[in-house]
Amino acid sequence: MSDRQKPTWYYEALLFITTVTWSMSFVWSKIITNTGMVSEMYLFLRYTLAALLLLPFAWKKLRACTRAQVRSGVIMGLIIFVGMMFQVAGIAMTTPSNSSFITTAYVVIAPFTTWLLLRQKPDRITYVAVLLCLVGIYILNMKPGEMLSLNLGNALTLVGALCWAFQLTYTSMIGGTMDPLALSALSFGTTGLGGLVYCLIGGAMFRTPVAQLQAAAPAILLTALLPTILAGVVQVYAQPHVNANKAAVLYTMEAVFATLISIFLGLEGWSLSVLTGGGVIIAAVLLMQFGGKKRNV
User: Fold this and answer.
1) What is the number of other CB atoms lying within 10 angstroms of the CB of residue 50?
2) Residues 83-122: pLDDT tens digits?
3) How far apart are CA 64 and CA 74, in angstroms?
4) Contacts of the segment 119-124: beta carbons below 8 A, 24+ positions apart
5) CB of 182 within 8 A of CB of 57?
6) Is the Cα dihedral 78, 131, 136, 94 positive or negative?
7) How many other CB atoms are there within 10 angstroms of residue 126's CB atom?
């Protein structure tokens, strides 16, 4: 059976699996940071391993890349590196649920990065969605007896979400100009190299104890194989066959699954602020997808 003959639900199921896999990365990242491993060492190990594992499958495509395509892959990798540095540093100081819900805000931010890079002005509903998203983030940060404040971990995660919005826009700019495997290998390798340089400059390469590496190794291997390689390849394969709005809704569920998995593993407990704030952020994303005119990003 060819790809075109397969039913839509098949591709939707693949994206559902991708979303669940991505949600696990928040939990695994929290487990890794709980060992005391710094962000740059984690990114170096995770993305270098992912690039090496993907290399045999992408080698022929990489050799055929032009200089412009290599540059595109490197830029993508730099965006991922910066975004992951903020996200991983943030998750060390917040919960997996907060991190996943705030990261979901990139869907709301993306129209503004598209405005900046592609000169496509957001419509009015976007501003309403942004306001709703900010309300959700505020609820996530609410503490009894305190005024408006933003937890440092949540703030760093929000900066990471801004990077993911830029990544989404940049992907639409270079989409179709190079092979997905080559793009993934280049971007993963660049992210891993960025982690290595940061490790050497900051000294993490020389002060990370062996016991810490051993404790974090299983989670690092899982993040390299599943959320990084497997989910990325499945997304590239399945998403073109699924309605854009349906895909966006499935991706929004990433935060829900991350919260459920985190609570199930005992990394955090139920709270009204997580349920309410997370729900408001998801409502903002759904408003973006269904409340205005059709978007390219």
Assistant:
1) 25
2) 999 999 999 998 898 898 889 888 788 888 888 988 888 8
3) 16
4) 120/296, 120/297, 123/292, 123/293, 124/292
5) no
6) positive
7) 22
Residues 182-220 pLDDT 10s: 989 999 999 999 999 999 999 988 899 999 999 999 999
Distance CA(285)–CA(102), nearest Å, equals 11
Q: What CA–CA distance (Å, rounded) separates 101 from 133?
A: 10
Q: How far is Cα 226 from Cα 44, in angstroms, rounded to an integer? A: 16
User: Cα–Cα distances in Å, from 247 out to 17, 225, 232, 253?
Assistant: 12, 22, 14, 10
Terminal CA-CA length for the chain: 31
Structure tokens at 89: 């540093």
Amino acid identity of 37?
A: M
pLDDT, residue 145, reads 54
Joined tokens for residue 180: 């997905």
Look up residue 282 and give its two tokens.
Answer: 């998801």
Q: Under a CB-based contact definition with an 8 Å cutoff, are residues 262 and 26 in contact? A: yes
Q: Are 116 and 168 in contact (CB under 8 A)?
A: no
Over range 64-70, report the average pLDDT.
95
Could you tell me how many residues make up the chain? 297
Name the token pair of 98. Answer: 């907060």
Residues 6+ apart with CB under 8 A from 202: 38, 40
Domain boundaries, the chain: 3-290
Q: What would the two tokens of residue 125 be?
A: 């509903």
Quick one: three-class SS letters along 21-87?
Answer: HHHHHHHHHHHHHHCCCCHHHHHHHHHHHHHHHHHHHHHHHHHCCCHHHHHHHHHHHHHHHHHHHHH
